[in-house]
Amino acid sequence: MSISDRLRALRQEIPPSVDLIAVSKFKPVADLEEAYACGQRDFGENYVQELVEKESALPKDVRWHFIGHLQTNKVKYIAPFVHLIHSVDSLKLLKEIQKQGASKGRIISVLLQAHIAEEESKTGFDIEELKEILQSGTLQTFPNVKVEGLMGMGTFTEDADQTRREFKHMAEIFEEAKQYEPGLKILSMGMSGDWKIAVEEGSNMVRIGSTIFGSRN
Ligand SMILES: *Cc1c(COP(=O)(O)O)cnc(C)c1O
């Protein structure tokens, strides 16, 4: 199947209320162009340099999502154009996004990455840290940052029960977070292997790579 065929098939399955981010890391510009020709406008990338190169090669109406670990010293390269940063995992990074947003005259939309995986290795804020950030008025000191919601990644596992448990937990955190910050609207969770469970548990934004573009080497 071609990229367009796989994209169309996927769109048939995903509810219209759920936004599909096509994760194109490591894939050549030609692959992104094929998805673009098929109507795809939201693309997700994990690496700053790769994102910057692709941004200059693709049409300007593409909405670029940064989904990888972001180093503070690299925020400046994506600040002029990035549509949504999903992976904000520290206050230090928020501060830098504020600084770069102010210097570019933009309000940059972000998601706070929540730690939901039962395994220890995944990054993100835990629930107590999220509460603290949302309750303390800290966000009001960042006028050039707009926190639009939360992002979570499940444990990489074959155990569907564990995945469901983690996504359920994430959805609870999202509901609780909205009580502190009613402006939160986006819950980004679900990838190729687990997006159906994520959507069943309340995700409204899925980040899908290999199902569209094929496996990465
Ligand atoms: C690579 C990646 C994805 C997409 O993964 P697939 O399994 O190929 O769909 C989604 N989210 C993040 C954060 C990623 O790094």
TrEMBL record:
<feature type="modified residue" description="N6-(pyridoxal phosphate)lysine">
    <location>
        <position position="25"/>
    </location>
</feature>
<feature type="domain" description="Alanine racemase N-terminal">
    <location>
        <begin position="3"/>
        <end position="216"/>
    </location>
</feature>
<dbReference type="InterPro" id="IPR011078">
    <property type="entry name" value="PyrdxlP_homeostasis"/>
</dbReference>
<dbReference type="InterPro" id="IPR001608">
    <property type="entry name" value="Ala_racemase_N"/>
</dbReference>
<dbReference type="InterPro" id="IPR029066">
    <property type="entry name" value="PLP-binding_barrel"/>
</dbReference>
<comment type="function">
    <text>Pyridoxal 5'-phosphate (PLP)-binding protein, which is involved in PLP homeostasis.</text>
</comment>
<comment type="similarity">
    <text>Belongs to the pyridoxal phosphate-binding protein YggS/PROSC family.</text>
</comment>
<dbReference type="GO" id="GO:0030170">
    <property type="term" value="F:pyridoxal phosphate binding"/>
</dbReference>
<keyword id="KW-0663">Pyridoxal phosphate</keyword>
<protein>
    <recommendedName>
        <fullName>Pyridoxal phosphate homeostasis protein</fullName>
    </recommendedName>
</protein>
<dbReference type="Pfam" id="PF01168">
    <property type="entry name" value="Ala_racemase_N"/>
</dbReference>
